[in-house]
Each structure stands twice: as C-alpha cells, then as structure tokens.
Write a structure and sequence with these properties.
Elements: H1 11-16, E1 23-28, H2 30-34, H3 44-48, H4 77-86, H5 102-110, E2 113-116, H6 122-125, E3 126-128, E4 141-144, H7 147-158, E5 162-169, H8 176-180, H9 184-202, E6 208-213, H10 226-231, H11 235-246, E7 251-256, H12 267-282, E8 289-292, E9 295-297, H13 309-320, E10 325-334, H14 340-358, E11 364-369, H15 378-382, H16 399-409
Helix pairs in contact: 9-11, 13-14, 14-16
Bound molecules: ligand G3I.
Residues 29, 56-60, 62-64, 91, 117-118, 121, 173, 213, 293, 330, 378 line the site of ligand G3I.
Protein name: endo-1,4-beta-xylanase
InterPro entries: GH10 (IPR044846), GH10_dom (IPR001000)
Catalytic activity: Endohydrolysis of (1->4)-beta-D-xylosidic linkages in xylans
Length: 470
C-alpha cells in the first residue's frame, strides 16, 4: 500500500537533485485519476456520489476487450464516443472524489510530468457531425469535445506537473473510416484543421507535443497508412510544419517503438528511424526531438528482445548528434512470460540499466512510463495479464521502482555517473552477456550486434502497430 513520504525520496525528489533537469513522467488514465479503485473506498457516502459504471460502453471502440485486436473492433470510435456522451451516460469525468485517489496521490508524489494516455488523440477528441444525417450525405468531422482531456491537463497543471501532448497524428486513433471517404485534399484540410484546433486549444498549457507517432513499418519502410496513401510520404514533414505554425513555441517530437537500440534486435527499423529524423532535420523541418517508446518484453526473442544499454546509449548519441533531444517515451517491461523466479531480477535490471545508460547522454531529457501501477496497464487489455510497471496492484513500490530510482540517482552530484552499467560492451569481465541471468535466447546471440535477421523484420509498409506483431 502506497503512502507518501515513506521509504526514501520519491522519483521526482531524486530527479530534482540531479545535475540537469529530467522529465520523470507517466501516462495517465482518467478513470483511476478521478474515480477511486473499487476496493479503495469503504466509505459509503463517497460511493453514493459515483454514478453507476456506464455499461462497458463501446466508446472509442479500440482496445475494447482483452481478446480483441484493435483491428477487429471496427466500430468507428467517433460514433461510439458521441453516442455515449450525448446519451448522457455518466463517465469518469462526471464526479470529483471527495479525497484524492491512491492513483492521484502516487502520481503527484512520484512524477513531475504526465502524458494523456488516450483522450488527447484525434478520435476521442473529434466527433462526427451528421450521425443521423441522410445516408447519402458524406460523413463529416465536426466539433471537438475537449472536456475529457481538459480535466486531465488541468489536474496536472494544478499540481505543477508538465504535460506532454500525445499524439496529434497516429493513424490507429484517427477517424480513419471517415477519412477514407475523402479526397486527398479534404484529408489534408482535415489533418491541418485537427492540428491547429488541438494545439490552439491547449496553447500555453501544453508546450511539448508528439506530432507524429509510429509512421514506420516493422522493416523500417514508411507504413502505408491512411495519411501515406492519401497524402504521400511528405505528410510527416507537412504535419511538423503545421504544428510549428500553430504554436511556434512548442517543442515538436516524432515518436516510435522498436527503435531504441543502435545495431540491436531491430537494426533496420532503428536505422530507418535515425535516417527519417536526419532527413527532416536536413530539410529544415521544425522538429526538436524524438521519443523511443521502450515497450519491452523481458522474455522477448529475435526482434522482440530488449536492446542492451550500450545499444540504447549509442542510439541516443547519434540522435543527439542531429541536434535532437531524446526521451524514453512509453516505458514498460513485460515479464510474465519469464519463469517467476526471474521476473523481478529482469525487470529491475532493465529499468535500471537502460535508464542509467540513457542518462549518460547529453541529448537525453526524460523518462516517461506508460502507466505506473500494474493495476492500470494497457498490457493487460492488449496482451495478457502482466506486471510491467514499477508499482504493484496495491500501489506498493516494486523492485523495478528501486532500480529506476537508483538509475535516476546516478545524475545526482556525488553519485556514480552511469551507475556501473556496461556501456561500451555487452559482456562483463567474466564473459557473461548483459542480462544473462534472465535472457531466454541462447546467450551467444547477444554478442551478434546485428542479430535482427531480415526474415524477422516484418512486412514492408505494414500499417499495423509493430508491437501488435509480437
Ligand atoms: O475511456 C473509456 C472508458 O470510458 C470505457 O469504459 C472503456 C471501455 O470501453 O474504454 C475507455 O477508453 C479506452 C482508452 O484506452 C482508455 O482506457 C479506449 O477504448 C481504448 O481504445 C484506449 O486504448 C489506448 C490506445 O493507445 C489507443 O488510444 C491505450 O490505453 C493506450 O495504452 C495506447 O497507447 C499507445 C500509444 O498511444 C502509442 N504507442 C503504443 C501505445 C500502446 O498501444
């Protein structure tokens, strides 16, 4: 059970003592932020203020159930969110708990920044206009409903926490069915309108944005998503230029996954990530940084194996040489496929070593977890039961928490910079490979820097999220 202030400094208290400012952020969901966990309150009068849980509404249609893939939930997120909202269905935003939830207390005590996990994306924000319109009329995008995202953003600002905007352009959470019906010029107009509308609404409150997310296919080619097909490969550059026009003061980022390590398990995609960014910088596109997501599976093999600290350090270094800032943007570490006795060792070492290595690079400016308690993680809804985060289901600090805190301590004056992690090699003095206590692949593979085999690189131009292909 989490209680403020026990057991040493919090993560943000450690970071505040560091030689440079680092974001220590977490992705936030509205329900646990504004509504106590079911076993959290035994105070009836508090409960009576909570409307009945809306039927497992089909809002935002993606990820609706643990078994479904986001590609089988064909329900258009726009229609779902409008219907449940306009139907007056109560939702997690319609109440203000009388006491801060455990989730809120832990979040504001441990982190100095938040990112909105879902409710700041295109589909949840923008609702269709003519749902009941004549069937033959083209479906159009209409008004924006910011009240969900505003509730989270304003909560964070009230608690002096930075907010990262995530994400303006991601084909997976765009009103794709409606965009498919449009001409390229109409899509271009809608995309530009979305960027300007969203950034203008939050201007002054959100100063750093993930502009484009996951535009690369597993093999490093550009994903042939709706924007690529309608606007061509130049859409990425266009989006950054529109974002800069919408808010010239904003820091603009490109975000992707399985790109974390140079010459590592995803060599081709990591190289493509670097070359994509190098090209944008060379063309004078207003891009200021990038996010490497770090959705790791400790039991992963082949392309799904975590990169070593050396690989991550080298990737951040070459991105920094482009003049870009780099953050770890969505870290979580799945362990449930490991033997139980290896799970905590593996998770602690990955959080510790990867972050300590990243912190040795001047370009590195933040570590963002994708959630922070195992009670609320996307992994359980999308993959299987797992414990990928640093607080357990009762908000207790896990071994991984202490590993991350020790890594963050490495930038505090007087502490050991790099935290003793292998940075120039992948094997220790005894010839043991990094992670040898828990890695599930033959250890010799670890020494082969380019052990991503072409056949493992996935489909050319695939627009399915890479992490879905694991
Ligand atoms: O808020 C509603 C809730 O009212 C309703 O009861 C519930 C059940 O229908 O759905 C809730 O919305 C869900 C939302 O997550 C919040 O839990 C949406 O249906 C669901 O589609 C949404 O999934 C998110 C997904 O992005 C799409 O936005 C995941 O939480 C989130 O972890 C995931 O995050 C992505 C990053 O943006 C990009 N990188 C990969 C990462 C993992 O997929």
């Amino acid at each position: 059970m989490y209680e403020d202030g026990i057991d040493g400094d919090s993560l943000k208290e450690v970071v505040a003592k560091g030689i440079k400012y680092i974001d220590i952020g977490a992705a936030v969901l509205p329900k646990p932020l504004f509504r106590p966990d079911v076993d959290e309150v035994d105070d009836d009068d508090l409960l009576e203020n909570i409307p009945n849980e809306p039927a497992d509404s089909v809002r935002d249609g993606i990820y609706r159930s643990s078994t479904s893939s986001i590609f089988t939930n064909t329900l258009d997120p726009l229609v779902a969110s409008t219907s449940s909202r306009e139907a007056g269905a109560p939702d997690e935003f319609d109440i203000a708990p009388k006491i801060p939830t455990r989730y809120a207390r832990t979040l504001r005590h441990e982190f100095n920044a938040v990112v909105v996990e879902h409710h700041l994306k295109w589909a949840p924000l923008c609702v269709e206009t003519n749902i009941a319109g004549p069937a033959q009329e083209p479906r159009r995008l209409g008004r924006y409903d910011f009240h969900h995202a505003d509730a989270i953003v304003d909560w964070a600002i009230k608690h002096n926490m930075k907010v990262k905007g995530h994400v303006l352009v991601w084909h997976v959470t765009s009103p794709t069915e409606i965009l498919e019906e449009m001409t390229p010029e109409q899509v271009r107009e809608q995309l530009r309108r979305h960027i300007f509308t969203t950034m203008a609404h939050f201007r002054g409150r959100i100063k750093v944005w993930d502009v484009v997310n996951e535009a690369l296919a597993p093999d490093g080619s550009l994903a042939e998503n709706i924007f690529y097909r309608k606007l061509g490969p130049g859409y990425i550059e266009e989006c950054f230029r529109w974002a800069h026009e919408a808010d010239p003061d904003a820091m603009l980022l490109y975000n992707d996954n399985k790109v974390e390590g140079m010459n590592g398990p995803n060599k081709r995609k990591a190289d493509a990530f670097f070359h994509l960014l190098a090209g944008l910088v060379k063309n004078g596109v207003p891009i200021h940084g990038c996010g490497i997501q770090a959705h790791f599976n400790a039991a992963g093999t082949g392309r799904n194996r975590p990169p070593t600290p050396r690989m991550v350090k080298n990737q951040i270094h070459r991105l920094g040489n482009l003049g870009l800032k780099v953050n770890i943007s969505e870290m979580d570490v799945r362990v449930s496929q490991l033997p139980p006795n290896l799970r905590q060792i593996a998770q602690r070492q990955i959080y510790h070593d990867i972050v300590a290595a990243a912190l040795t690079e001047p370009a590195f400016d933040g570590i963002w977890l994708w959630g922070f308690t195992d009670r609320h993680t996307w992994v359980t809804h999308f993959y299987y039961d797992d414990e990928p985060l640093i607080f357990d289901e009762e908000y207790g600090r896990k071994e991984a928490y202490y590993g991350l805190r020790d890594a963050l301590s490495s930038i505090v004056p007087g502490e050991k910079f790099g935290a003793g992690v292998l940075l120039d090699t992948d094997e220790d003095e005894q010839g043991n490979c990094w992670g040898h206590q828990w890695i599930q692949e033959p250890v010799e593979d670890c020494l082969d820097a380019s052990f991503s085999k072409p056949e493992n690189d996935g489909v050319v131009g695939a627009d399915r999220p890479d992490w879905e292909l694991t």
